[in-house]
Amino acid sequence: xxxxxxxxxxxxxxxxxxxxxxxxxxxxxxxxxxxxxxxxxxxxxxxxxxxxxxxxxxxxxxxxxxxxxxxxxxxxxxxxxxxxxxxxxxxxxxxxxxxxxxxxxxxxxxxxxxxxxxxxxxxxxxxxxxxxxxxxxxxxxxxxxxxxxxxxxxxxxxxxxxxxxxxxxxxxxxxxxxxxxxxxxxxxxxxxxxxxxxxxxxxxxxxxxxxxxxxxxxxxxxxxxxxxxxxxxxxxxxxxxxxxxxxxxxxxxxxxxxxxxxxxxxxxxxxxxxxxxxxxxxxxxxxxxxxxxxxx
Length: 296
Known about the structure:
By secondary structure, this protein is of the alpha+beta class. It has helices at residues 12-15, 17-26, 32-52, 55-67, 210-217, 221-247, 262-290, 292-295, and strands at 72-75, 91-95, 100-104, 112-115, 124-132, 138-147, 159-163, 176-180, 183-186, 195-197, 203-205.
């Protein structure tokens, strides 16, 4: 229903950040599994397309992301490298003869690991891979849109996915492990707003160094990190709403509500004050992300 009613639009990550963050935060008050699942789909996968893609990618993919016709996931983390994205081993080598990228997992440690949405539902994955041009020159990590399942939900050729199964929480999020065995991806499906490979395999970029390009590539995580912090603050809000309301109704030793006891106040009031402070901080961050120039 969220998707059919147009409640969240991935393009708002760049077009209307405050609307996007508000819409995503509202899910925290419904179900945290839903918010995480939607966060991977809209914020990480859709947000990467919005931030790193061009008009071609926006028109081809974002409507299907918004409608959930194309469930997305985010293939950055690898088993052997965790959050050390610069050290990932998955490769994307360009072949001028076919005008395709060859996406390859060279070892088990290079498999994409703990990828939310991959185990059961994901059909497209924003895959981080080390880019090599036609001269086999390394150009650093870039992002490629790789179909991992067809429209009927069947695995695409040369894609293998394992279900990481039960967890301690958020069981509705289908975390998976992905291996690519020389999967062919069209040249156009590299997110090339800042870097490009032409038909002949020549690399070009508006960002001069690998390190600077890397910082741009992982910039899509910023909104997701904000929403994780906001989720923690929202959890505090939910807990305090319940506990404060209860303490104003529950009586003990006659008709005296327990909030009147100083021991109870000392447990709740500092937490309430801290949560207000954190919420003000999140509002400041939200404004800063929506308009970085104004924040300065």
